[in-house]
Amino acid sequence: MAALLLLSLLLLPLLLLRKLHIWPRLRWLAADLAFAVRALRCKRALRARALAAAAADPRGPEGGCSLAWRLAQLARQRPAHIFLIHGARRFSYAEAERESNRAARAFLRARGWDAGLGGGAEDERAAGVAGAAAPLAPGATVALLLPACPEFLWLWFGLAKAGLRTAFVPAALRRGPLLHCLRSCGARALVLAPEFLESLEPDLPALRAMGLRLWAAGPETHPAGISDLLAEASAEVDEPVPGYLSAPQSIMDTCLYIFTSGTTGLPKAARISHLKILQCQAFYQLCGAHQEDVIYLALPLHHMSGSLLGIVGCLGIGATVVLKSKFSAGQFWEDCQQHRVTVFQYIGELCRYLVNQPPSKAEHGHKVRLAVGSGLRPDTWERFVRRFGPLQVLETYGLTEGNVATFNYTGQLGAVGRASWLYKHVFPFSLIRYDVTTGEPIRDTQGHCVATCPGEPGLLVAPVSQQSPFLGYAGGPELGRGKLLKDVFRPGDVFFNTGDLLVCDDQGFLRFHDRTGDTFRWKGENVATTEVAEALESLDFLQEVNVYGVTVPGHEGRAGMAALVLRPPHSLDLVQLYAHVSENLPPYAWPRFLRLQESLATTETFKQQKVRMTKEGFDPSTLPDPLYVLDQAGGAYLPLTPARYSALLAGDLRI
User: Hey, which of 216, 409, 476, 526 has its CA 20 to 30 A from 110?
Assistant: First the structure.
């Protein structure tokens, strides 16, 4: 009896904590504290790496930039450990070091540096090795136009070791956009994949006119003036190059250009500093991965998610990466079984592709314990874990050029992170009120921005400092106009404007709300495209949804339009769809137009194309897809015929 009484007394506080909803808050506080400790340890480790690289003998390989230093360190510490798996090819850390050393020496010869001297003297007599072009100056930019493959990595690492900047050019760019990218980053040379040469042939005269040195990464037949860079590299010795060649004068120096996706115009070359490369080495450590993990990476390497988070993050923990040139939902689980994958780096749409696949034997008994990425919507998240679990989903948020990142280390469904005081002490940020109509933050009578309340969408901003700078874009300071906000909370302060609206709930969880350019106003109200899309995606006959706003003559603001893809073998049920939106969304958020498509247009990183869809509008005479319009009076969605389209323009059809 006494034992039961004692047990009751011990359990009573726990029951009270649960009853008062304090227990979950204590668990979240513990998670906040654990992540803060992990983040501080990462910062100390990165500082130690930076100091070790700076203190190393500049004549040796250890004295270079953080990327070269880390690869050389892993080649010494874990020489036989597999770094990269690509198809049937495997490369250890020692092999990766040797391959990148050969590439570095090939680039140094193009610089006019005689690698055989060993002393680093610039020798213009070596300029003729790679053709008639002038030698590349120290710090010159070399653009890579390559698919995701091992050679991409060896050339990138080699350029870093040779003291040259790299520009990752999106593989799909041709003609005007390609030339724009090369000019904006000041490229002096371009390395092409042989399989791209045919599609690039019309661009070759313009590329030559720009004075670019042209290389191909392969032995296939090349047009005149294009030499085989891999052959040149294979002829070099694989000994390390002196570290001083790549050592930056400042850790803030630009070492890399990554182009934004260009969904709202021509791509911009975001400046990536040595500091950012160093910080990205901590990514997987912050996510809880370790050196024995095998990471599955099927994202384009010319984007930050693939290169900086995937590859550099893997180098940070010394793990193994399985690199795929293209993502295949049908092959994914077989790959995971074959390579004993433990970590999957995703973009939200990849998870959607997986849950829409028919069941397979390979999806059972896998070793995947952690899925890390961004853009995973709650409905797909729930289906993904229920079908493929048990595994942890760690949703993150960040921008290529940004100075703020969030991690959902608690695993809260639908959240991108936490806004606890502990997290904000390590990674400071704020949410401020934003006017969708003017496109500007709301300021008080003192001219300062106003912080949001729990549950209120706000613009995510982060203070700019030496530890979290904003370097802008290549091509001029005007390209970064609007990305910096001044006098946010006090005179003279400067914050980075992410352009994203987030919501912090009363429990401190951050949820992505919308892009500032995607949210639109209709009937005097703000409509968040993500909210409408999530409501529609809960219908069992819809597989994919893209929501955006379109201009309607005679109406203020923009009307909601939803592009829909059906889930086989279902058909479109307009009656159920209308009933669903009327029950789950406020009237101003109901889509006024529907567009039925076989597949949705996406960018190379699987982001939905909203700008293009907005421009295409809803004219049935110009669009091949079935269109529907909301008949508010009749309470139904009806086919948008030419007659109804004319009635709408005339003001006779009320939406």
Answer: 476
CA dihedral 113, 151, 305, 293 (to 10 degrees): -110
| Type of residue numbered 175 | R
Residue 556 CB burial class (10 angstroms; 0-12, 13-18, ≥19): exposed
Measured CA to CA, the distance from residue 80 to residue 93 in angstroms comes to 6
Residues 6 or more apart in contact with residue 119 via CB below 8 angstroms: none
Distance of CA 82 to the CA centre of its chain: 25
What is the Cα–Cα distance from 406 to 418, expressed in whole angstroms?
7
CA dihedral (112, 117, 120, 124) in degrees, to 10, reads -20
The residue among 391, 387, 349 whose CA lies nearest residue 601 is: 349
Yes or no: say if 156 and 96 are a contact pair by the CB < 8 Å rule: no
Please check whether residues 542 and 486 belong to one and the same domain.
no
State yes or no: pLDDT of 118 exceeds 60: no
Distance, CA of 366 to CA of 342 (rounded, Å): 8
Contacts 24+ apart (CB under 8 A), 612-619: 613/546, 613/548, 613/561, 613/563, 614/548, 614/549, 614/550, 614/558, 617/550, 617/551, 618/550, 618/561, 618/593, 618/645, 619/645
pLDDT > 90? residue 522 = no
How far apart CA 642 and CA 162 sit, in angstroms, is: 62
Calculate the alpha carbon distances from 632 to 539, 591, 593 in Å.
Answer: 21, 11, 12
Integer CA distances (angstroms), 625 to 107, 529, 563, in order: 50, 21, 10
- Please check whether residue 161 is in contact with residue 101, taking contact to mean a CB–CB distance below 8 angstroms: yes
Torsion sign (Cα): 252, 257, 260, 266: positive
Is the same domain home to 497 and 551? no
Q: Give the residue ranges of DSSP H helices in 476-553.
A: 529-537
Whether the per-residue pLDDT at 128 is higher than 50: the answer is: no
Structure tokens at 325: 């040139």
d(CA 86, CA 64): 28
pTM of the model: 0.86
Are residues 196 and 290 located together in one domain of the fold? yes
309: left (phi over 0), alpha (psi -120 to 50) or beta: alpha
Domain boundary among 497, 512, 527: 512
| β-bridge partners, 522 | 525
| Each residue's pLDDT tens digit, 413-455 | 999 999 999 999 989 999 999 998 788 999 999 999 999 999 9
Mark whether 463 and 548 lie in a shared domain. Answer: no
Tell how strand 440-441 and strand 434-435 pair up.
antiparallel
Interval 203-249: pLDDT, tens: 999 999 999 999 999 877 778 789 999 999 999 999 999 999 999 99
Residue range 585-602: mean pLDDT, rounded:
90
Give a yes or no: residue 25 inside a domain: no
Q: What is the CA radius of gyration of the chain?
A: 27
Q: Are residues 470 and 523 in the same domain?
A: no
Counted residue by residue, the chain has a size of 655
Q: Token pair for residue 157?
A: 């690492």
Is the model more confident about 560 or about 172? Answer: 560
**The predicted structure's pLDDT at residue 133:** 63
- 150-161 and 93-111 helices, crossing angle to 10°: 60
Measured CA distances, 157 to 96, 97, 233, 624 (Å): 9, 9, 13, 47
Q: Which residue has the higher pLDDT, 253 or 557?
A: 253
> How confident is the model over 443-496, as pLDDT tens digits?
999 999 999 999 999 999 999 998 899 999 998 788 888 899 999 999 999 999
| 440 and 534 co-located in one domain | no
Q: 């109406």: which residue's tokens?
A: 555
